[in-house]
Amino acid sequence: QNAYDKIFREFMKDYPKIKAAPTRVKTANFLERVLLEFKSGDIKADVVHASSEIADVVKAGAIVPYTGVDAYMQKNFRFPPSKSLPGLVTDAILTKHVDFNSNLLTKAQLPKSWGDLTDPKWKGKLALDIEGYEWFAAMWQTMGPEKADKLMKGLAANVVLREGATHIMELMVAGEFPISIEAYGHRIVDFKKKGAPVEVIRPLFEPVPVIPSYWGAIKGSAHPNAAKLALHWLASKRGQEAQAKAGRIPVLKGVKHPVLDWLDADNTKTFAVEPGTIDYTGVAKQFNSYFLRNKK
Description:
Elements: H1 2-14, H2 27-40, E1 47-50, H3 54-59, H4 70-76, E2 89-101, E3 126-129, H5 133-143, H6 145-156, E4 159-162, H7 165-173, E5 179-184, H8 185-193, E6 198-200, E7 208-217, H9 224-235, H10 237-245, H11 258-265, E8 270-272, H12 280-291
Parallel strand pairs: 3-4, 3-5, 7-8
Antiparallel strand pairs: 1-7, 2-5, 2-6, 2-7
Helix pairs in contact: 1-10, 5-6
């Protein structure tokens, strides 16, 4: 919630006559709440924000198919929204990386490839989120089934499963394990700023999963013009700089963030997890067949 408050405070500096009141909704409740309000006509929000869940909102016809920002985004954004989901504006991305505790490992000791992480010497020393589905899908689709199957079997023998990206980072900083497999890039930056012994492994392990997030205007909202104005502002340089200032990773080319510097410097291959492109139920079942089965 804090990031959204910071971003819309900047918005209200530019448009002081518009009162923006961001409300955070738990991911598990987001889709049900938005669609219930839309179908009942009791619409509370003018714009909504989500990642993968936004595809179902678009398919339900709840998003205004506004195209006023599309050409600008296609030309100037690192990760513009898919043309199959009209009305969306990308505002930021999440990225996932292999990182390490620099008090526990020297650079000479670091693994250099995914294959290195299957070495038995790393048994019990690699942390993986219990719901690492985007990472799993990125690896599977870029490596192909045969290579990915071999990798997952090797990793499953070595990883310890923990829940929650921030929690995993805290445990790694505390010394419970030296490496985590899919740490959020912006969290690595945040923890480093606070003096924690956290570093991303460079060159970056590929592919880097990228999870864009999006805003869309809700059909039938009370303030449709203000909603469109917000979409334009969120896509603008001013809006994108507000994202970076709030600690999020912007998508407008030319707006700086340390994670983007990593991606550019290492010329890194990425895998964008676009809304509606992953069968999360199927991926979860496949992920669990490798990792949960080995932890019983």
